[in-house]
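Section 3.1: Structural characterization of target chains.
Under the original work plan, the team committed to producing a structural model for every single-chain target entering the pipeline before any wet-lab resources were allocated. The record below documents one such target. The sequence was received from the expression subgroup and is listed exactly as submitted; it comprises 452 residues.
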Amino acid sequence: MNEISSFDDDSQLHLQQLMETAQRLLERARALGASQAEVNCSQSRGLNVSVRMGEVETVESTRDRGAAVTVYFGQCKGSASTADLQEASLDATVVQACAIARHTESDPASGLADAELMAKEFPDLDLWHPWRVNADEAVDLALASETAGREADGRISNSDSASVGSVESVAVYANSHGFIGGARGTHHSISCALIAGHGEEMRRDGWYSSVLAREDLEDPAAIGRLAAERTVARLGARSAPTGDYPVLFEAETARSLIGHLLGAISGGALYRRASFLLDSMGQRIFPDWFVIDERPLLHRGLRSAAFDAEGVATRNTPLVIDGVLQRYVLSSYSARRLGLVTTANAGGIHNLQVAANAGGLEELIRGMSNGLLITELMGQGVNPVTGDYSRGAAGFWVENGAVAWPVDGITIAGNLRDMFEAIEAVGNDIDFRSHIRTGSILLGKMMVAGMD
């Protein structure tokens, strides 16, 4: 196969070429004695630019390609990869994978996902929206965002850069069950980060838009103005009173709570017995109204896919119903280690939807009386084994249902099991910039430690 240096041709042509490469790699693995094999081939191109204080800072054009081969000799596994798609390098990669497999110990859980689970339908999920933006155009958009932000408020004293990025990729997964599947995807973003104030009173914040299709990007100037608004709102920050208070996680920070759930119910953590949610399937861990659905077949979803990283067919399924954990998040390997069946999550979770039971952020603030609104989290103080949680935070103190002053230099603490049970509301202000789609999340009580 000849190297592909440009995506100017139809992306379907590139997919077909990668499929042919994958099939040849499988044939070579079979000829070398592998009982099973799987191949990933991909190519991508992208453009990223950044500006700062009205000047171009970086312009980066990327072109990446690669192939990864995994072979099994019985239940002995070997993997190798290459970024060179010339025939000689591809052949050497298969030879290397086979050599590794012959020197590894047998693992009863290793091997391809079961053949009957392979995807057979490949719906168009509306993931391919190439944007032929050139460097000059991208720079102009970044400058428009930064300029709008710097001019929005006289208290903006500096910029931490504005950036524009666009990437498109094609990928193929194939295995010796006879499965072969291709996917195309695009991703585009605009961001702006600003600095307000001077000296010890300097504060930084920003905003960004992240989408699959150019037409869904927020206006660059609007991004800059919102970045300015968020930044100056943090001026004059002080501590919060120490005690137990309601804590409202803004949608962007609320995602982290769901992320901690996913880490605790992932197969790797469970079979290593390194999770605070061991043996929790079928148990209520959230309030009885709480619902999370996984929606891998969502049109134009940031993490949509008809099959997972092992070729297993995905489907829309619940993760939590009425507060009860319905399943774990498993690949075929972790499922075998646990005596269960894969949940089509090899390679990670797909789109999650956390159901709302309340209005937007302002309504949640009005209803919480006195407490803390969290807009930023810092540090990694979460113990995945015990669920103990302690993180630095910044945001706003709320008094009598209204934002009173910006807050910084505080710590919030608790245990994730207790925190999940303490959730009182999920707002409808969903942040669509992530594959974890949730609104703001209100906890009835957490320990807040100020500097007093």
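The first strand starts at residue 36 and ends at 52.
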